[in-house]
Design goal:
alpha/beta, TIM Barrel, ten-stranded mixed β-sheet, three-stranded antiparallel β-sheet, 16 helices, 15 strands, binds D-gluconic acid, binds magnesium ion
Length: about 450
């Protein structure tokens, strides 16, 4: 007798005796009576196929998982994007998770997550985290479609009508950054992340150095970075922007873990007069021990986390109230299942969410971010980008960015689909296998430094 039959038999017997179901086995009546009202019984569901789809409709390598079920036409999509190691994630899914998953019930999302997580014995790293994320989101998508409900409804329902976002304003001069910020504000953005290129230095999130005349092979092309000049200039950029743009607009900045910890502390103090909405990644994940020191010295709001993989990296920061915004990359930590737990943990410590939402999160991943944002009371802000036409064609049902808000549709699951034939028309490039900016950033003396 399986669990459902056992439960049904128990319930019937207990009902007849007017006793709770758990006495049924002992006091069951011979009189068959109607079972208490139960939900519509749906036929059992099984995973019949797991596909990994690599596509680059906007030029960035995306990894999407499609889980196909035994119910005709019922499938789910999830984001497993790790753009710098896309092929490794593909192998983790196709060669390892797929055989483990075939035949399992995709509605048992928690059990699927826990068992996939432990199935490699070694765990908590990128690649396996991304692979599990794709599977996890695809299962949530299936649960939503089966229930006929959007995922945000399964998470407790909407706490807000739409999701407030920030976008990026980059430039090589103060005026260029100001212009880019104004353009976004005119489109309705209330939150703008500002990044400045430093002359002669390769600066994260800024206008890239034009290297068309550089004949050095891409994999050996060094980018130069020195933190001091950046540390001195950034407060001046904010001074300029506050003068020109006023106090109303919320300004953000990403340090991208590129400065030595004492300089990051100084920077947070120097930026206080400009009241940033948040300063992101002042330290690298290897240096999180510095947060205790930093927190006591500054009132600048702190965001951290796109590089986190292991709960031990972020749980103490949340529980000790050392950060204000958690910025985990949802596919990095394994998908919606762990992310919703992180959001709930944060709620108790008044830490707000600001899930990572750059170009290397697929529209499916952005849709998952939006569903969680809609249902999270302690939501802070969502990093967003407009989707290219090609992305919208490959992923019909993309969240819509309007007046600075991301809007989800109300279709079941994540409400987003994938045109596989069209996706195949945007193959990922293996040459170069990833952009060589990472791992080639060096100080002037030639020593390697954090990206
Ligand atoms: C951000 C990020 C990204 C990362 C990128 C790495 O949006 O805050 O720092 O742009 O650099 O996702 O691949
Ligand atoms: Mg960042």
């Amino acid at each position: 007798m399986n669990r459902r039959q056992w439960l049904q038999q128990s319930t019937v017997g207990a009902g007849a005796a007017g006793l709770p179901w758990f006495f049924a086995g002992r006091f069951g009546s011979a009189q068959p009576v109607a079972a208490p009202a139960q939900g519509k019984q749906l036929p059992p569901l099984k995973i019949t196929d797991v596909k990994t789809i690599l596509t680059a409709p906007a030029g960035i390598r995306l990894v999407v998982v499609k889980i196909v079920t035994s119910e005709p036409g019922l499938y789910g999509l999830g984001c497993a994007t790790f753009t710098q190691r896309a092929r490794v994630v593909e192998t983790a899914i196709d060669k390892y998770l797929k055989p483990f998953l075939i035949g399992k019930n995709p509605l048992d999302v928690e059990d699927i997550w826990q068992s996939c997580f432990l199935s490699s014995y070694w765990r908590n790293g990128p690649v396996l985290g991304n692979a599990i994320s794709g599977v996890d989101m695809a299962c949530w998508d299936i649960v939503g479609k089966r229930a006929g409900m959007p995922v945000y409804q399964l998470l407790g329902g909407k706490c807000r009508k739409a999701v407030d976002t920030y976008r990026h304003a980059n430039g090589a001069t103060f005026q260029e950054v100001e212009k880019a910020a104004r353009a976004l504000m005119e489109q309705g953005q209330r939150y703008v992340r500002v990044q400045l290129a430093m002359p002669g230095l390769f600066t994260y999130g800024s206008t890239k150095i034009d290297d068309k005349d550089d004949k050095t092979p891409a994999n050996a092309r060094t980018r130069t970075w020195e933190p001091r000049a950046y540390g001195r200039t950034l407060p001046k950029l904010f001074e300029h922007l506050r003068k020109q743009l006023g106090d109303e607009v919320e300004l953000l900045h990403d340090v991208h873990e590129r400065v030595p910890p004492p300089l990051a502390v100084q920077l947070c103090k120097d930026l206080e007069p400009y009241q940033l909405f948040f300063l992101e990644d002042p330290f690298s994940p290897e240096d999180v021990g510095w947060f205790k020191n930093l927190r006591q010295q500054t009132s600048t709001a702190l965001a951290m986390g796109e590089l986190f993989n292991n709960p031990n990296e972020f749980v103490p920061l949340i529980a000790e109230r050392l950060i204000d915004f958690i910025r985990i990359h949802i596919s990095q930590i394994g998908g919606l299942t762990p992310a919703r737990k992180v959001a709930a943990l944060c709620e108790f410590f008044n830490v707000r969410t600001a899930w990572h939402g750059p170009g290397d999160v697929s529209p499916v991943g952005h849709a998952a971010n939006v569903h969680l944002d809609l249902a999270t009371p302690n939501f802070g802000i969502q990093e967003a980008r407009p989707f290219t036409q090609a992305e919208q064609d490959v992923f019909p049902g993309c969240p819509v960015l309007k007046d600075g808000y991301l809007w989800s549709n109300d279709k079941p699951g994540f409400g987003i689909d994938m045109d596989e034939k069209l996706a195949a028309k945007f193959p990922i490039t293996d040459d170069p296998p990833f952009d060589y900016n990472w791992g080639n950033l060096r100080r002037r003396d030639g020593s390697i430094t954090k990206p």
